Amino acid sequence: MTLLNQFIQWLDNxxxxxxxxxxxxxxxxxxxxxxxxxxxxxxxxLERRLLGRFQVRLGPNRVGPEGIFQPxxxxxxVLTKEDIIPAAADHWVHWLAPVVSFIPVIMVxxxxxxxxxxxxxxxxxxxxxxxAVSSLSVLGLFMAGWGSNNxxxxxxxxxxVSQMVGYELPIVFSLLAVVAAAGSMSLNRIVEVQAAVPMFxxxxxxxxxxxxxxxxxxxxxxxxxxxxxxxxxxxxxxxYSGMKFAMFYLGEYGHAFGxxxxxxxxxxxxxxxPFLPGFLWxxxxxxxxxxxxxxIRATMPRVxxxxxxxxxxxLLLPLAILNLLIVAMEQIFWPGxxxxxxxxxxxxxxxxxxxxxxxxxxxxxxxxEV
Amino acid sequence: MSLRTQELLLNVGPQHPSTHGxxxxxxxxxxxxxxxxxxxxxxxxxxxxxxxxxxxxxxVIPLTDRLDYLCSxxxxxxxxxxxxxxxxxKVPERAEYIRVIMAELQRIASHLMSVGFLLNELGAxxxxxxxxxxxxxxxxxxxxxxxxxxxxxTYLRIGGVxxxxxxxxxxxxxxxxxxxxxxxxxxxxxxxxxxxxxARMKGVGVLSPxxxxxxxxxxxVLRASGIKWDIRRAEPYSIYDRFKFEIxxxxxxxxxxxxxxxxxxxxxxxxxIEQALKDLPAGEICAKVPALIRPPRGEAYGxxxxxxxxxGFYIVSDGSIAxxxxxxxxxxxxNLTTMKDLCVGWKLADFIVIFGSIDVVLGEMDR
Amino acid sequence: xxxxxxxxxxxSQIAAAxxxxxxxxxxxxxxxxxxxxxxxxxxxxxxxxxxFDYLQNLTxxxxxxxxxxxxxxxxxxxxxxxxxxxxxxxxxxxxxxxxTGVWRGADFQEREVYDLMGIKFTxxxxxxxxxxxxxxxxxxxxxxxx
Lengths: 370, 367, 146
Fold this sequence. Notes:
The complex is a heterotrimer of chains A (370), B (367) and C (146).
Chain A: H1 3-12, H2 17-54, H3 70-79, H4 91-108, H5 126-134, H6 137-147, H7 151-182, H8 187-193, H9 199-202, H10 204-217, H11 243-266, H12 278-299, H13 305-333, H14 339-360
Helix pairs in contact in A: 1-2, 2-11, 2-12, 4-5, 4-6, 4-11, 6-7, 7-10, 7-13, 10-13, 11-12, 13-14
Chain B: E1 8-12, E2 24-30, E3 33-40, H1 48-52, H2 60-65, H3 72-87, H4 93-122, H5 127-147, E4 156-157, E5 160-161, H6 169-192, H7 195-201, H8 209-214, H9 220-224, H10 231-234, H11 255-279, E6 298-306, E7 309-317, E8 325-329, H12 331-335, H13 339-343, H14 348-358, H15 362-366
Antiparallel strand pairs in B: 1-2, 2-3, 4-5, 6-7, 7-8
Helix pairs in contact in B: 3-4, 4-5, 4-11, 4-14, 5-6, 6-11, 11-14
Chain C: E1 3-4, H1 7-17, E2 24-26, E3 29-32, H2 37-46, E4 54-63, E5 66-75, E6 80-88, E7 95-97, H3 106-117, E8 120-122
């Protein structure tokens, strides 16, 4: 029984059911939105400071003690900028694109359990909802690319479509492996199942595949072809300024934060942990995952678009399918075995598969005869 | 039934994060594949050759600073070599050693920047740039110690250098050599084995040796294609024939080799600086030439191995205080002659990387 | 050490290969007629013992009576160099044969000479202005421009 449902039951004593349902829904939505926006602000600050430290320089440290008010200063700056729309741009498409790109980010947080019982909607098909909603944001990016009437944005938008489509399958197959191991699609249940062994130990190969595929889905380095600064200027965001650019910016970090939260939930055990309250454990795990994402961004160069699709289809998809096969077979033939045995077997199998596929698939070359 | 497609004409224009200045390319794309390419330059044309005809020989030296503005010491050296050849000036020993130290330090600074920006074009989000600039700052501090400026040094004069080295220069330089050796090892460890870097650069933009010679490529671009030709060894200027150093040459002529040649050249430059420091004599720093030097009638062509290629000055004198004609041979513009052959068939992302690996500076291309 | 070949000897070799041509040695340089430049350069590139495969520099000077186009050639194989010159006496209609067929490196350098000095190169695949824009009045590096 989630906290929100308890609240609805309590309100039912005073109000008719539809009123208490509506009130609880509005309060819940407000809490989720505030949580998401605060999370994005923390994440933006962390990224700028940490990137600075990786690059042998201080990050922003002037605005407020150690620069913690920097995101607010950025928000004020961006809100006061002029909103420039290209004259030949497709007006409605250009206007709607940031909205369509940002809303799925918030929708994802509806099924993430932040603490024991603290979840907005305890869907019993939570994983399906996740996979469906997170693929909506590519529509926003494509609308931005097309509506800007700019060749750079168009190239970026088409690249992003092929990127998203190509990485949906490894994500879905890794999610299926998690579902098979946990026995349910509800995220609450998946977190509870990890009380004994967290999922990333149980399925190391699935974890790595899901992590890399998430990096590609949220357009972060080394797969940030969408905003490839050095090639296509600002990619999809080239013709945006002011609040619309801020929505893209928030959306990008919201995606990153959302992906970290989901990975923390599905693979690292969510809000479980000794001593500290569940909420804090959840945040710590999400921020650790985000730290690794920043680390990768500061270190790796970018891949090319055909190498990107090669990694998605030739490298990650076979690994994800084989991972699903192994996990499903273990669940069918050894349903009650001690989990650490499975940890050992999966680790060895994962290592073997990665070495094998490293020998057969290469991403070098790529010249086309013209 | 075949689809009707159209090629996209993309203007990688004068304002672009990766064009090293104001270079402009018109690129025809079939999807993402480059099918044709045209270079449009001239956005930074300042008419330096024409300006030099109305200035005295010493007044042209600040103009040469502003050519390849990242390699001012080398530009000065090329010009002074040409004028000294024309006027028959003998440069004193101490000045020669100082010139060599400055030129090699400039080579390291330039290659650091080149490697950093090449990695930026690959997408490593500014991290290698900041690392390389951290070390370049130390070199620029030394230049500031010597000439008072951080960028357009105007340090050399016809017949020598303008000021002597201050006392804190040599200990600082010795410390810097140790730091730089460690730094270059760090870059090699971080970059050269990176799988994504190798996948993006190996085999990309291959320049064959025959085409390299035929299209007058020079500098690291030529040496990466397998031609062991370095002006410091082939036609030694200044006192380069007294130093022992290797000439790194690679086999394939792709972007990775051009990057590798620059890293190796930095190490060799450190060797040269150490040898020069050991033998640095005392003495005069500039030959006795009149302030308004009048070289005899005639012409001379003086060229040096600048960090970006073979920088040459063709000077014609008619016996007066100003040169009659100064022509600057730009290695960066000539290296771009075969850009189309290198890029056709590769993708837009590769075109940016190939352009970065050739490493141009617009000041020298446009003059 | 790159050896600068004696111009008299090179001039006599070119004169032997092109009998009746206008070839002479002028100081350190060999002077040929403008319409023969590409043939002479093809000979210089392929002749055994000469083999000038690298075009070092291509530029021009305006000596008010005539234009002079200067070629600095190097042989990477033998490590020797030479200077080749050609003179155009017609200011309004200066034409020189293009050597882009011999060395591709002459491409941009000839365009620059055309742009700034106004000398046309016959046989150049793409003779457009390179540093200034199409429609710029005049040729700035000429001595009578300003």
